[in-house]
Amino acid sequence: MDTIAQNYLNVKKRVAEAAVRSGRQPEDVTLIAVSKTKPVSEIARAVEAGARILGENKVQEITAKYDELPGVEWHLIGHLQTNKVKYIIDKVKMIHSVDSLHLAEEISKRALNAGRVMDVLAEVNIGGEESKSGVPPEAAEELCLSMAHLEGIRIRGLMTVAPFVENPRESRYYFAKMNKLFVDIKSKNYDNINMDYLSMGMTNDFEVAIEEGANIVRVGTAIFGARNYT
Ligand SMILES: *Cc1c(COP(=O)(O)O)cnc(C)c1O
Hints:
Helix 1 (3-21) crosses helix 2. The protein has nine helices and eight strands.
């Protein structure tokens, strides 16, 4: 069997097992196949095996691949510049990386112009790392509240990229901290702030993330192999 197809099915199975371990059903956790830097020919092999949700972190990659892979759902998971929102507003299902009111306002405006409402997640920098985007955990609720009145977006939850650690078990602390924040905001039942999705966990640590409450995981390398950035 094709390697990428096999990898996809294997990751899918591990996601399902982690969901069950954490007291949920396999279908309660969504797997996003992160296809950044990968050519359409390779992505198509994962799609063939059943992948229907693809994640990219660059606007240009979505626009370049969009027409060639019909019938899939695209999620923008990487840092988004305000001036590029217009290129993907009609192409993506959800934007995971909203980390400022300014960006949210632009997404809302463009979405309304396009006659839609965009699902968004607020990105949290849970490890407080200088190199990462996202708001500090203590500012997440405030960001959600500031965006809640925008009619062109629907706040659906939180997203994080946890600090890279050698041992995935060390990520557990950050994932648990994210989950606590997520549950806390959810419990307040604010108008127009839906805490439906907690997007966290990548190749190195997606099982731990699920055990700590993630219901969306974003996995690239384990499906498509290592990326070559040169
Ligand atoms: C690249 C990327 C992923 C996937 O990373 P892997 O370690 O290859 O699974 C997930 N989320 C974001 C935001 C990414 O940029």
